[in-house]
Design brief:
single chain, about 300 residues, mainly beta, eight-stranded antiparallel sheet, 2 helices, 26 strands, about 45% strand, globular
């Protein structure tokens, strides 16, 4: 993928491409020496938009996943969202992923981008001014993404974040999808209803549990749409069994849940860290126990993830 406005980082054997006009999306992370492209990268922005913008690179979700009824209440305020998934009656994923960001730093190893919602230019119907600052840094170990969110409003602001991180399957040039193995640090599975919303039940033991935890799961052999608690060390590994090349995806401790999805497609796998459980504000759990978080006026938090490519 190449655009006139895209940002390229080149260092330590890695190549990364970031798209400011589509939510600061990291659309490509490659290691040419290992003939590896980790992420599902579109041929063009037009191709991505016409297909499904959630299934390319690492789109930022704010807030992540579904909110039933496209609304929730917090501190006697009703937060209303566009009902962009009418079949389930939900609001889905937000629109940060398609919002232009301003580039404020760009070198061979770093890029920093910023988006500011204000009273005059709000984010959807969200009643808070806020700043989102996205920083990417290449290191010898790979790329680190840090996202700072600051509440610029005068009221407490509910905050959550996640990603629809979409990996290419296979990710090694000339590789075979059947050779790709997934290992995931997952705790309990969160059961969901026909509208993909948590039912209130979590399973200690579930199908393919040991395959997920020990790295034996073959993603392309399954139709996957599952929701898990994270477990330490909050890590995903995708390994090409034929070559021993591995992608490692790590999440900071503010992330508490995974979504894993391929919809039966053999060409990609979404492994999605998120800070709250699906439908957290309305789910049949105590909000505080399932990731509902609040920034006071002027408060800020930083969330990090890291991606690396190596050979075992």
């Amino acid at each position: 993928m190449h655009t006139n406005d895209g940002l390229t980082l080149l260092a330590y054997g890695y190549e990364a491409e970031i798209c400011p006009e589509r939510g600061a999306n990291l659309l490509r992370l490659a290691c040419p020496e290992l003939k590896t492209d980790a992420l599902r990268t579109p041929l063009s922005i037009e191709n991505m938009v016409q297909d499904n913008p959630y299934l390319w690179g690492i789109p930022i979700l704010f807030p992540p996943n579904r909110i039933s009824g496209a609304s929730f209440t917090f501190q006697n305020r009703v937060y209303r969202w566009p009902m962009n998934e009418p079949d389930t009656g939900c609001f889905l994923h937000g629109t940060i992923h398609q919002t232009p960001f301003q580039v404020i730093e760009h070198t061979n190893t770093r890029a920093t981008l910023i988006y500011q919602a204000t009273a005059n230019k709000p984010y959807l119907f969200f009643p808070h001014a806020f700043t989102m600052r996205v920083n990417y840094a290449l290191t010898p170990q790979g790329i680190v993404q840090k996202i700072l969110i600051r509440n610029d409003s005068l009221q407490d602001m509910p905050v959550s974040i996640g990603f629809h991180t979409t990996f290419r399957i296979p990710f090694v040039q000339g590789g075979d999808s059947e050779q790709v193995r997934l290992q995931l640090s997952c705790g309990r599975e969160i059961l969901r209803d026909a509208h993909y919303l948590p039912t209130g039940e979590m399973l200690e033991h579930y199908e393919d549990q040991e395959d997920y935890r020990t790295g034996r799961l073959i993603p392309c052999a399954h139709v996957i749409s599952r929701h898990f608690e994270m477990a330490d060390p909050r890590r995903m590994e995708l390994t090409d069994a034929a070559t021993g090349i591995r992608i490692t995806y790590e999440a900071g401790d503010m992330y508490r849940y995974w979504m894993v999805y391929n919809g039966g497609n053999r060409e990609f796998l979404c492994v999605e860290p998120q800070t709250w459980i699906n439908n957290c504000p309305n789910a049949p759990f105590r909000r505080e126990e399932t990731g509902f978080d609040v920034l006071p006026p002027g408060g800020e938090k930083t969330y990090w993830t890291a991606l690396s490519i190596d050979k075992l």
